[in-house]
Amino acid sequence: MAINLLGGVKLPKNNENLQYKDITEIKPPEVYAVPVVTSNGLPAEPVVKIGDEVEEGQLIVKPTGSRGSFVYSPTCGKVVSIIDKFTPKGKKIQHIIIKNNGKLTTHTFSPLKDKTAKELLKRLALCGLVDANFGGTPTYLRYTLSAIERKFTLYVVISNTDPYISSNEALVINRTAEVVGGAKYFARILASKKIVFVYNGRAKKTKKLLKKYLKAHEPQLKYSFKEISNNYPSDNIMLLMHRFKTKTKLFTEGDYKKAFVEDAITCYNFFNAVEFNMPVNSRVVTVGGNNIDKKGNYIVKNGTSFEHILNVVGTVDDKKPFKILNGGIMTGMCQYTTDVSCNLETRTVSFINESEFDMQDESPCINCGRCVSVCPMNLVPNVLDDYCVNRKHFDAEKHGLKSCIECGCCSYVCPSKRYLTQRISTVKKQVEGGDK
Amino acid sequence: MKYLVTPAPHRYSRSTITDMYITIAIGVFGCVLCGIINYKLNAIYILLACMSACVITEILFSLINYKKPFMDYSFLVTGLVLTSIMPINIPWYFACIAGFIAIASKYLFGGLGNNLFNPAALSRSIIGVMLAGMSFDYFGGDTPLGILLTGDKSLINLNDLVLGNSVSAIGTGCIVLILVLCVIALALKLIKWENILFSVAGFALMVCIFMGGKNVIPMLMSGSFVFVVVFMLQDPTTSSYGFSARCLNALLFGVLAGTMMSKNIMGETAVFLALLITNVFSPAWDRLLLVFHKGVKKHD
Q1: Range of A125's domain?
Q2: Portion 346-385 of A in contact with B at CB < 8 A
Q3: Considering only alpha carbons, which residue of chain A is nearest residue B298?
Q4: Does residue A233 form part of some domain?
Q5: CATH number of the structural domain spanning residue A194
Q6: Interface size, chain A vs chain B, as Cβ–Cβ contacts under 8 Å
Q7: Could you read off the pLDDT tens digit of each residue along chain A, which spans 436 residues?
Q8: If you ran DSSP here, which 8-state letter would residue B229 be given?
Q9: In chain B, positions 8-67, which contact chain A (CB-CB < 8 Å)?
Q10: Same domain, residue pair A384 and A250
Q11: Which is it for strands A323-326 and A333-334: parallel, antiparallel or unpaired?
């Protein structure tokens, strides 16, 4: 029986089936703009200077504190400049501009001897892997030394509920060995007895393919499958962590460090970092939307500009206005320019035209309570919206404004088409900005 | 190339308030149609009087508020619900006054979504109070509720109550039809089951206490109670939005309606007065239960 999380909405299915297409690497651009810090702003500083020659996989950014992430060069080339630029999430941060010189020299880590839990944990800390679900927080921060070898069960999410994201499924179908290998390494760190693959009802075919592979190639691996509801955002790693930890639908403040949920992309990247000693400098990104020709899942290097992606995939109609989203249809942030670059948090880039998005005027709230019933974070969006409109930020904060994950479920179901998520997220940013 | 920039989400569900109100209006029109079949021309006169008053008032208040009239179809639902709960022998000008009060009460509180009281219930209660002083028979005979409270109980025939052959308001007589519409509305998720369950439970409890268990079913089927539970208590604007708050709200309505009807306070108007009192408390339940909706703290 499928596991139900609190709230969520049923989104229409995407019939394009991009997950079955082969994953290809996007043609390398001439210039890369690599962000120095991830969107959660953990401190880091560049270790290269303007004019330095760098090689692919060479360390270019190191953390200044104990919590930052390492960043490795995505290409061989010359550091042209270090400038402040906007990220797709709208933050102005330092970017290292590297001009590609076409060479193919690659820096790799030294191979691991025994691949023990401690060795793997060290590799996890050094390889530059970050969590897209947690605003670019380094993955290793969840795997503290006290947490390893405690026999926690590892959950691996192999599907996506947003119809515009199919990277997890694509990896499981096309790169099964790497995903399973990565999951095994994570399981070794945790000394997990078995791996639980989590999928939603729409990804049953992917589950079958994975099961077939595991039967044929991994007879000794202990694994099971768990179905989650089709409701968006049931594949959100943070929600799943709480769900598996607390075993209740209505979760309380749980210790997220004790529940281990990873997605297929993280497993794939970790496998490459351990097996081939490759630093993480790319990510599988779903490039979708009806305004482009070549939809699919691509391996995109850190720092590749949206403009380059658009040139590679080709536009259908560039005369009519369209939206460029950094993210899926529910959370994607609109870009006003293509002069922004992908980073290791980018899960999907969507170029959507008028047929795919709705724009409606809002009507007064009729208190139907649909937003309350779908909120996965147990909030009351209509009351929060009321506080936001009347600028009662303190009251909004008291009623859980900061808990909002901006999933967009409340706006989606609202029959009055109220701009709930939009207003709540604006005020949330103001409040969080004020705190800092 | 031109780029559009709007905040997320970029897609919305197809359901709108206009669709909701039109669907409910179709359901209530079924009840009114049943009344027209039973009472013929009288029912048509009241329907026309109520609807025209609602439309004129809607236009008037829209113009005052610099809004386009008929932006939503809430006036349609209000007009049809009001027609359904009107006594059959009421003079046409009373129906007009009722229509005016219903729409005006909504706009005086700030328009759709801000009204504290159910417009139809408020207007029906005022009409009920106005008629209480008059000595003419505006139902055209003894209503089942009147018989149950003061007359010979053996005259009550359950089959007549179920099929709508008894004396009642225009659209509230035929219990079978209301129940069928209730099932459809539940399937379409337009109404909530907890409202029905808790209000009926509260009502049955109070009738049991004051009148004995035998009278529960006849009391449930008389005095517009079923109609109010299915169509008026479920009005999202005047009811609570949280599940627990809705349960409390419905229970309070059931208890109040049961008590007032058993004790013959205001006769046929009792159920509407009970609804008005419940409406006053519904925002309070939500505020009270807001403490349980404080979200989940995220890690730093």
Answers
A1: 110-275
A2: 352, 356-360, 363-369, 372-373, 377-380, 382-383
A3: A403
A4: yes
A5: 3.40.50.11540
A6: 160
A7: 556 667 788 888 877 888 888 999 998 999 999 998 876 667 788 999 999 999 999 999 988 877 778 999 999 999 999 999 998 888 888 999 999 988 888 888 999 888 888 889 889 988 989 888 777 788 888 776 556 656 677 889 998 888 889 999 999 999 999 999 999 999 888 888 888 898 988 889 999 999 999 999 989 899 989 888 888 888 877 777 766 665 444 333 334 445 678 889 999 999 999 999 999 999 999 998 888 888 899 999 999 999 999 999 888 877 888 899 998 888 888 999 889 999 888 889 999 988 888 888 888 898 888 998 898 888 889 989 999 999 898 888 888 888 888 889 999 999 999 999 999 999 998 888 765 4
A8: I
A9: 8-13, 15-17, 19-20
A10: no
A11: antiparallel
H/E stretch holding A356? none
The reply to whether omega before A43 is within 30° of 0 (cis) is: no
DSSP for A54-72? E-BT-EEEEESSSS---EE
Q: Are residues A262 and A123 in the same domain?
A: yes
From B21's Cα to the closest Cα of chain A, the distance in A is 11
* Polymer length of chain A: 436
- CB contact under 8 Å between B8 and A403, yes or no, is no
Which residues of A are less than 8 Å from B13 in CB distance? 9, 412-413, 415
Q: Are residues A122 and A251 in the same domain?
A: yes
Domain count, chain A: 2
Q: Which of A8, A72, A62 has its CA nearest to residue A34?
A: A72
How does strand A348-352 pair with strand A282-288? parallel
Q: Which of residues 295-314 of A touch B (CB under 8 A)?
A: none
Picking from B7, B32, B114, the residue whose alpha carbon sits closest to that of residue A334 is B7
Which residue among B2, B8, B236 sits closest to A369, beta carbon to beta carbon? Answer: B236
Nearest chain A residue to B1 by CA distance is A318
- How close B233 gets to chain A, by Cα (Å)? 12
Q: Which residue in the block uniquely carries the two structure tokens 């109520």? A: B50
Instruction: Give the helix/strand (H/E) hosting A155.
Output: strand A154-157
Tokens of A284: 């599988």
Residue from A230, A224, A258 nearest A244 by CA: A258
Please provide residue B209's backbone torsions phi and psi, each rounded to the nearest 5 degrees: -65, -50
- DSSP letter at B189 equals T
Among B8, B16, B290, the residue with its CB nearest the CB of A383 is: B290
The single-letter DSSP state of residue A151 is: -
Do residues B201 and B225 make contact, with C-beta atoms less than 8 angstroms apart? no
Q: In what order do the strands lie in the sheet with A154-157?
A: A223-228, A195-200, A154-157, A260-263
- Inside any domain, residue A269: yes
In a domain, A310, yes or no: no
**Dist. CA B93–CA A92, nearest whole Å:** 67
Reading the block at residue A52, the tokens are 């330095």
Amino acid at B249: N
Whether residue A235 is contained in a domain is answered as yes
